[in-house]
Here is the input.
Amino acid sequence: MPKENEKEIIAKVLGGDTNAFGELVERYHKGLCIYLVNLLNDDMQAEDIAQDAFIRAFVRLETYNSNYSFSTWLYKIARNLALRYLENKTKLAPTFDTNMIETPTTESAQDSLQKDEQTASIQKAIASLKPEYQEVINLYYWNGKSYEEISEILDCPVNTVRTWLHRSKESIRKELYGQIG
Here is the structure.
């Protein structure tokens, strides 16, 4: 049986089938948690905020604008909750957890070590970026969001997203290859 599209599921929920919301949770929970872990650098808090975001989305589902994907709206809710949490806790800027990257077990030890070193270098380069650049990299590469979706989540123009993504890639390139020549 093919998956229902999110608009059909949302229509069911709004029509009284509250159990249908579980399918949206199943679809987006893992990606949302990864996004939040990268933003907060705290697995437990990311899970709590993800749950809170789903609850808020469920309670406010009638305000959802179907011109955008549900995941974009959900990520925006979660981002706002996470930023509020960070403001209250005065935590450091978001970082990327290298444990989120899976490496194949069939690699030789030397290949694995080289990949670990490359991953560490990339993580260090990303961590050196401005927080908004880190977030754009996270949403675009780790969560597969389009420029338009990122624009909606971050509440900024699409051209700003393009600029931030370009500048972050340039900064990473300089960080990784600048010393070579």
Q: What stands out?
A: Residues 1-92 form a domain with the Rna Polymerase Sigma Factor; Chain: A fold (CATH 1.10.1740.10).
